[in-house]
Predict the structure.
Amino acid sequence: MIYLDNAATTRTAPEVVEAMLPFFSENYGNASSIYGLGSASKKALNQARRTLAEALGARQEEIYFTAGGSEADNWALKAAAETYKDRGKHIVTTRIEHHAVLHTCAYLEKQGYEVTYVGVDENGIVRLEELEAALRPDTILISVMFANNEVGTLQPIKEIGQIAHEQGILFHTDAVQAFGQLPIRVDELHIDMLSASAHKVNGPKGVGCLYIRSGLKLGSFIHGGAQERSRRAGTENVPGIVGFGKAIERAVAIMPEKIEREKRLRDYLIDLIYEEIPYCRLNGDRDRRLPGNVNFSFQFVEGESVLIMLDMKGICASSGSACTSGALDPSHVLLAMGLSHELAHGSLRLTLSEENTEEEMDAVVEALKEILGKLRAMSPLYEDFMKSRKGEGHVQ
């Protein structure tokens, strides 16, 4: 098997699993209990919180554990909207956000809030002038993702954070794809809230966190007990939190080498696809993207058919966000970037890890050449195109 869907989820690292195991059967105490067994869980939980805080340049008390990135996004947006509604009911986000943000914004609109969805350029980078023009006296929150989950483009987070702070507006970023992959310092980037998830960085599924800057008086997201300083009730997922901490400790330790290796492999794959496969388009900025993200659109084919045929060859990939798997509509991200429905339907996302090799990339491109050849041979559109003109190879 060749696994190239690391943006959807990653393999849990062996050392992460090893760190988690004692908290299932040995140190299984409730972290809220006052006896020794519970204290051991509490100590492990606090250590993980410190590890995450250090990775962000934050303070331990600014980290709140959640059940994942989607919950963290929901909490940030809903709590900010509720807490600051007397100041205003206007929110600014982008058209290419993860659905955890977009669907939360749609919910808030039904509650009487106004949301402005800012556009992006052809590479998927937010238009700063449009974002700044969208701000109003009643704007209370800006939410822009750190790195896009589909095309991998990195947003001008520092500039957006500075714009927000100059106008006294809260700034949230969905950093699910970036945390543990790239260096992030919340103070330098003017970030007030940040969402993250463990399973994107070789940690376990079902655990994430929300960074909330000290001084923000956001309300509770889950009501009940006093866990997470009374802001997120419920018995803590101690094994998952321990795994998250270990995963981030591991990610920080290998980050420089991992970034460099994945960039080299990413660029090798991009160049190889361009050399070997005609009528394709790289989606997202060529350089300003996540180290391991490659997203192409192939003309005259359906992405879903490509995925099925890749799977038959033991290659795991995707056509976009795992959260929209099975959806018939083309990617909202690619449409926002100006792609036609045809090109958006023919997209393929290949996301790498430090375990992938050049030999695997060679095998994937050979498989793609065969698959695309078969699919295009059955396409009336391709047949008409070839009859009408001799293409130049790459679509624009």
